[in-house]
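Appendix B. One record, verbatim.
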Amino acid sequence: MSTAALTTNAPTNAPTNAPANPPASLDMRERFYAELDPVLDAHPAADVVLAVIGAGYMQRAIARHPGRVFDIGIREQALVGVAGGLALAGRRPIVHTFAPFLVERAYEQVKLDLGHQDVGALLVSAGASYDLSSAGRTHQTAADVALISALPGWTVHVPGHADEASELLHREAGGTGRVYVRLSGQRNSRPHPVDGRLHLLRDGAAGAPLVVAVGPMLDTVLEATAGLAVRVAWTATPHPLDAGGLRALAGPAPVLAVVEPYLEGTSAAAVAAALSDRPARVLHVGVPGETELRRYGSPRDHAAAHGLDAAGVRRRVATLLT
């Protein structure tokens, strides 16, 4: 099948064209769609590959860049396979759909068509963890970051703000590596540097426990730890983890918690490796792997049930102080 035959046509009832200068009020997913047109302008080798999801939001990019936006249909394995073919042909595929379909459903193709072929691609997911809780278990995944991190040669970014997502998209669209960007409905009130490093955002007494917030968990962690004798650090790049930064902040006898918006313990191996020569006490806070909620509810309901709201995070972090 020729790539021309795969070029998507936006439905007539699609949402309004993305603005040339996106407003700051857009959430991460809306900002991603709005930025695709300027990204394709700036990076002639980039193509967008979709599996229906998002096609209706890309009228401007489709109209201005014919032959560079491909809708494969509801065929997620083929979605990644086409991306692998484009990469082998020297293109830079930007691959997008909901997280459970992009990572879990197409995992073998991610492993083989990209990783085994040793080609680069930029995978951008929406619907992180339980963002799409009202759609049921089929649209939920907390294991996506752990799965991608298990494959060699990948970088994982988990932005906490639409400005961070925009910066990562523009930067990685011009790269050559294998990159996973996880967009979330949860967001922090302001952006922070997405340079791959660990940043100390709330200082405290020397030797005080360190709480590391990943991506959109920062505001929740800051609220949860208000008044507690802890320091708070943040990163948008959990894989590869900034091991040097962690060692510098953790100190010689680390006591720390890692608060992640996905499967609890995803960063455990990286943290353990970074602190392997130190007597460390480490708490991992995330979506519990042994719990599967079977009621739909809202994302806020799921966060509270998993202990990932401010009250739940505070209960867990407080155990470090006893």
